[in-house]
Design a protein that fits this description.
The chain is an alpha+beta fold. It is built from three helices and nine strands.
């Protein structure tokens, strides 16, 4: 099983290495981008659909500037909160060229990590990481880091999705007058741990 995951990773690296060297040797940069990023939006949408069709007890735990509140929620509220993971889609053709992909194996956690990052500070999604199990296909976690700039403030969001169980959004807002507010929202639908 471990060798299958390693073979999968080597195949991906070899494929992208050959594709990049062929493109540069042809000198034709006007070809369409055929790089395939992990379909995070599609993965999250599938998770959302599963929650919508299964009668889970869903609750939201919110910590807002140190105050804790826990409430049950319905699927409509679940869907509304989870949209933070869907927009924007970094697989969009206008955004995709601005991201760099890295893949590495972490032997201590027995997982592969696919990482996408950008140096463009004007893009909302700054970083995405997908942790895969040793098989190279089963998602363990999805992490996103967003930067949002408003006229009177800026916000950093750290998002984490644990498949089939929960997601979390940590939001830190810095106002123009240097005041800061911190909110952590955790939504759970199938508590396993």
């Amino acid at each position: 099983m471990k060798s299958a995951g390693f073979f999968f990773l080597i195949s991906i690296v070899f494929y992208f290495g050959c594709r990049n060297s062929n493109n540069s040797s042809n000198g034709n940069n006007s070809q369409a981008d055929t790089t395939r990023f992990f379909q995070v939006t599609r993965f999250i949408k599938n998770e959302i659909e599963e929650v919508n069709k299964t009668p889970y007890y869903i609750y939201k735990l919110e910590v807002n500037n140190g105050k804790v509140d826990s409430t049950p929620i319905n699927t409509a509220i679940f869907n509304q909160i989870s949209t933070a993971f869907l927009h924007p889609d970094f697989n969009d053709e206008s955004l995709k060229p601005k991201y760099k992909e890295n893949i590495f194996e972490d032997q201590t956690t027995k997982s592969f990590t696919i990482s996408y990052s950008t140096l463009d500070k004007n893009i909302e999604i700054q970083n995405v990481e997908i942790l895969l199990k040793e098989d190279g296909q089963t998602v363990k976690r999805v992490f996103m880091r967003k930067f949002l700039n408003y006229s009177d403030s800026s916000a950093i969001e750290q998002l984490s999705w644990k498949p089939g169980e929960r997601f979390q959004i940590n939001r830190s807002v810095q106002k123009a007058d240097n005041t800061e507010s911190i909110r952590q929202t955790t939504v759970v639908w199938d508590q396993k741990s």
